[in-house]
Every structure is written in structure tokens, then in C-alpha cells.
């Protein structure tokens, strides 16, 4: 909107122990993919 210049899309990551949400995403046909967790990375987009 005209008052803010960002959008919060909520949670974006699901951990490997969150079995229920992973099962639900599979049932709904939502594609998931692994992210790099072995390195210490920071991504900043402006």
C-alpha cells in the first residue's frame, strides 16, 4: 500500500522435523525443495 514499501509473506521455511506440514504440502501438491544449511550465508535483497 502507499504507507509501506515492503510485503511480509509470512513463514517461508519448514524444518525437517515438521512432519505434519510436510505431509500437508505433499497432499496439496505444493512443491518443496531443500535449501543450503551447511554453510553460513546471508542474502539481502533491496
From TrEMBL:
The compartments listed are:
Mitochondrion membrane
Q: Please give the PANTHER family that the UniProt record associates with this protein.
A: AMINE OXIDASE, AMINE OXIDASE [FLAVIN-CONTAINING] A
Q: Which UniProt keywords apply?
A: Membrane, Oxidoreductase
- Its domain of life? Eukaryota
For this UniProt entry, the molecular function terms from Gene Ontology, in alphabetical order, are:
flavin adenine dinucleotide binding; primary methylamine oxidase activity
Q: For this UniProt entry, what is the primary localization, expressed as one broad class? A: mitochondrion
Names of required cofactors: FAD
Give GO cellular component annotations, separated by semicolons: mitochondrial membrane
Stated membrane topology is: Single-pass membrane protein
Q: What is this protein called?
A: Monoamine oxidase A
InterPro entries reported for this sequence: FAD/NAD-bd_sf, Flavin_MAO
